[in-house]
Write a structure and sequence with these properties.
107 residues, 0% strand
């Protein structure tokens, strides 16, 4: 049984549900990394957010993706952003500032 408010028992299921429901579409790459890590940390757990972040970059490294240290830095910024008090829009604004994005993040 999943914890109250957690969308799924499994790490993968929780991360996928959170990404679909909480990360806005149409963002640049680094804000997406930041928001994804922040939302997974908030709605699944911080360790799961770190695991998913590293796992995604490893997948990119061994596939046709584009593995970048800067993506891991944006993920790390997201772990800090997850701790921002307030709703998800406050986290989005923190991620926007942390990644230097000029576009306003909306959920």
């Amino acid at each position: 049984v999943a914890a109250p408010g957690r969308p799924s028992r499994s790490t993968l299921g929780c991360a996928q549900a959170v990404l679909a429901a909480r990360v806005p579409q149409g963002l640049a790459d680094k804000p997406v990394h930041c928001m994804a890590a922040a939302m997974i940390a908030r709605y699944c757990s911080r360790p799961e957010a770190a695991l998913v972040s590293v796992g995604k970059e490893l997948k990119d490294l061994f596939s046709a993706g584009d593995a970048e240290w800067a993506d891991l830095q944006a993920d790390h910024d997201g772990l800090r952003c997850a701790e921002v008090p307030g709703d998800d829009s406050a986290v989005g604004e923190f991620c926007r500032q942390a990644t230097g994005s000029s576009r306003r993040l909306r959920n």
